[in-house]
Design a protein that fits this description.
200 residues; mainly alpha
Length: 200
């Protein structure tokens, strides 16, 4: 027997997607300004942050030596998991087109970067950066209560850039962020349950 969603559920989903599209248009066009046009394509660049992550790993290795190795392995596993779930499982399963491939938006969309061929939901950028923010915020929380909120704002700014440049909807970002935070939290819990300690 085949079960179909009720009319109320279908209407609710249609309404949610319409709101999502409207918010996208507001961020992508209404908030447009020369400063963001210049900064956002660079700020959300994967190559930029991969380079900085590599530099951070070198600094950790210099500062903590072998003590940081288990945490670095944890970070690789957690981010690899968040990326695989977002890119390899959820995106093909949902199959939502990116806004830059959406015919209904062709006359209004401002595309500031190349539009990738992959699907839109969820945002792997958001999942990976929020996962990283949770991991680092948890591991180095002794530096101060400001660290984790600051990292979440930083991850959010990168995710916002994905909407601004025209390659993701806000809902892609929101669910991607929740996915990354959940995986980061679960991996941190498993790390501690296994008896590992964060580098001191």
């Amino acid at each position: 027997m085949t079960y179909w969603p009720s009319a109320a559920v279908t209407n609710m989903l249609d309404w949610l997607l319409q709101v999502d599209q409207n918010v996208f248009v507001w961020i992508n066009t209404t908030l447009a300004n020369p400063l963001f046009d210049l900064a956002m394509p660079w700020w959300r660049s994967r190559s930029l942050w991969l380079s900085l992550y590599a530099l951070l790993a070198i600094i950790w290795a210099w500062r903590f030596g072998r003590r940081v190795l288990p945490f670095m392995v944890l970070a690789l596993i957690a981010i690899g998991l968040s990326d695989a779930l977002s890119s390899q499982l959820i995106k093909p399963m949902i199959g939502r087109l990116r806004p830059c491939h959406e015919v209904a938006l062709v006359d209004t969309l401002r595309l500031l970067v190349p539009c990738g061929p992959s699907f839109s939901f969820t945002s792997s950028h958001a999942a990976n950066h929020f996962c990283f923010a949770w991991l680092v915020g948890s591991a180095f929380s002794r530096l101060g209560r400001w660290l984790l909120p600051s990292l979440l704002v930083w991850a959010g700014s990168i995710a916002f850039g994905q909407v601004y440049v025209g390659v993701h909807y806000p809902l892609d970002i929101l669910v991607g962020a929740l996915l990354g935070l959940t995986i980061g939290w679960m991996c941190c819990r498993a790390y501690q349950k296994l008896g590992y300690r964060y580098p001191q």
